[in-house]
Amino acid sequence: MPQTSLFQTRAVKAPLSERMRPKTLEGVLGQEHLLGAGKILRTLIEHDQIKSLIFWGPPGSGKTTIAYLIAEKTKAHFVKFSAVVSGITEVKKVMQEAENRLKAYDQQTIVFIDEIHRFNKAQQDAFLPYVEKGDIILIGATTENPSFHVINALLSRSRVFVLKALSVESIQLLCQQALHTELATQENGNTVEVSDALLEQLAHFSNGDARIALNALELLCDHVRSKGKQVAEQNDLEEALQHKSLQYDKAGEEHYNLISALHKCLRDSDADAALYWLGRMLESGEDPLYIARRLIRFASEDIGLADPQALVQAVAAQQATHFIGMPESNVILAQAVAYLARAPKSNALYRAYQLVQEDVRTTMNEPVPLVIRNAPTKLMKELNYGKGYKYAHDYQDAKVEQEHLPKRLKGRKYLQYSILNK
Predict the structure, then answer these.
(1) Sign of CA dihedral 65, 66, 67, 71
(2) Given CA atoms 22, 24, 29, 34 in this order, what sign does their dihedral have?
(3) Whole-number mean pLDDT of the chain?
């Protein structure tokens, strides 16, 4: 019984991510550990020996694409379900058809369930007897840990393959391919020029999701062409991704001048000047709770662990101000300001978190090292979750050396104790 190729059903105006879906195993990027030469999944696909399996990986990593490639290779009948729109009635109908197909034509049915984690227990149970009898081969795709979202009976009868988020390099390569194929064809060869630097930013923005990257690239190119240009610039990317810089209202300049003055006087440990600027703000009608919020921020940003009581004082001032209001709370805020101005200063925490933010923004969401993952399920233990973990309290002074950061950030130091203890 011939079946229509899933790749032949794409609309011309389909999103770029759909038009760029790989048509061969070689075209699937970032999953070499599964699809490289001699790897088990590739061998199973090439020899049409697919058994029930589950693809677990982040969005845009290629789960559905691999399922489609299996559909192209297999002699089995292929049926796609979406857990978002398919109900139990439809499930039972397809299961009965699969049973009849096997009896009449000796042909198995591969049932692909996208977002299988969205199927409830009753829906998943409906597949179980047909998987057990061999009427169907189940392929599930999920972004969630199958240990928690797939019933044990199905999980025990399936092989789990873990897909990885695409690397920045893979995303860049994919975008370059799109620029010189689909996007160039769409515009009769007059594609938009996008520099490697912009593609790298777009790749970071996508966070390993090929779908997000390609659709954002198409939006960028459409945006550039709408301006009558052929070369994408930094501001074009920001506009296409809707990244905007915050701007202050010019009419409120004095408001920000005064809070800036208060903050800097506190940082410079000038209690008298800080009290003056506090008075200027309160007497001009500034919201006292706004000032209190800024003092709380200052207590951690500019003092932090140099005097942990600073945060306690600032929060107490905010609570007291909220409780009694103005004008009585003016002296409460004055007490907090004087304390913060006289406290020892350290921006070690502030600088540490800035470094963290930079790494979070400019690197991929790296996976948690296996050694410090919890392993409450059999599958997770089989995947080496928590293997080799050292329980700190079993060691002298409760100190151990083991991998805590992602590999790309190994040895990274954020909190500078020399700054903290100065």
Answers:
(1) positive
(2) positive
(3) 86
